[in-house]
């Protein structure tokens, strides 16, 4: 089971967003059968089987084992990932595009940029999984508390200078066999964690 899987197919996204199927995906972090799941979610086994077949058709759950119980074969399933992210690719016609409003100080531009990041990394993960390879990535996540808006603006200016300097130092347009990498740096107000 993967820690995170990316859903790129619109039909798979639709299947995963059904509240009951979403609950079944959560329950299937640990393997379970339609019978055991029916008791947990309060549905008839046949209804659970219907939802499991739909999730399986879209690659969101997989068969772990089959057990014979009398004259019935019980299928034990599990989610293919502990969590799922729906790529903007699933909504291709309306996916955000940072080029449409390139205002670096706009929260909506930041959201479009984040959607592009999810789409691009999702594509890389999907391709790497098919090729049985890993994706070389790096990320930093942190928090800074600014005393004032002026400090925040000064931080943004200094950060821009530092990143630009690093890019200038390491970027080599003529590197034979070199591979371009995208850099995304974002600063936004923290959202209080739930719970």
Order of helices and strands: EHHEHHEEEHH
Class by helix and strand content? alpha+beta
CATH topology name of the largest domain: Arc Repressor Mutant, subunit A
CATH superfamily of the largest domain: Winged helix-like DNA-binding domain superfamily/Winged helix DNA-binding domain
Computed CA radius of gyration, to the nearest angstrom: 22 Å
Ends distance:
27 Å
State the CATH class of the largest domain: Mainly Alpha
Reported for the largest beta sheet, the result is: 3 strands, antiparallel
The coarse silhouette is elongated
Observed structural traits:
44% helix, 2 domains, three-stranded antiparallel beta sheet, WH_DNA-bd_sf, 195 residues, Arc Repressor Mutant, subunit A, ArsR-like_HTH, WH-like_DNA-bd_sf, alpha+beta, 5 strands, two-stranded parallel sheet
Task: Give a short synopsis of this structure.
This protein is an alpha+beta fold and 195 residues long. The protein contains 6 helices and 5 strands; from the N terminus they run E-H-H-E-H-H-E-E-E-H-H. The protein has helices at residues 10-17, 19-27, 34-41, 45-57, 107-131, 149-170, and strands at residues 2-7, 32-33, 61-69, 72-79, 81-86.
């Amino acid at each position: 089971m993967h820690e995170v899987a990316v859903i790129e197919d619109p039909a798979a996204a639709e299947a995963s967003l059904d509240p009951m199927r979403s609950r079944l995906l959560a329950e299937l972090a640990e393997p379970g059968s339609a019978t055991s799941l029916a008791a947990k979610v309060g549905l008839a086994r046949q209804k659970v089987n219907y939802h499991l077949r739909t999730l399986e058709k879209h690659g969101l759950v997989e068969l772990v084992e089959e057990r014979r119980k009398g004259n019935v074969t019980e299928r034990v399933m599990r989610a293919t990932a502990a969590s799922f992210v729906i790529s903007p690719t699933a909504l291709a016609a309306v996916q955000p595009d940072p080029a449409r409003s390139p205002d670096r100080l706009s929260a909506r531009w930041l959201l479009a940029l984040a959607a592009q990041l999810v789409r691009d990394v999702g594509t890389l993960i999907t391709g790497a999984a098919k090729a049985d390879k890993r994706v070389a990535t790096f990320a930093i996540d942190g928090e800074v508390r600014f005393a004032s808006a002026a400090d925040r603006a000064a931080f943004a200016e200094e950060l821009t200078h530092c990143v630009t300097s690093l890019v200038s130092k390491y970027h080599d347009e003529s590197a034979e066999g070199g591979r371009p990498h995208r850099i995304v740096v974002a600063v936004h107000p923290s959202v209080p964690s739930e719970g």
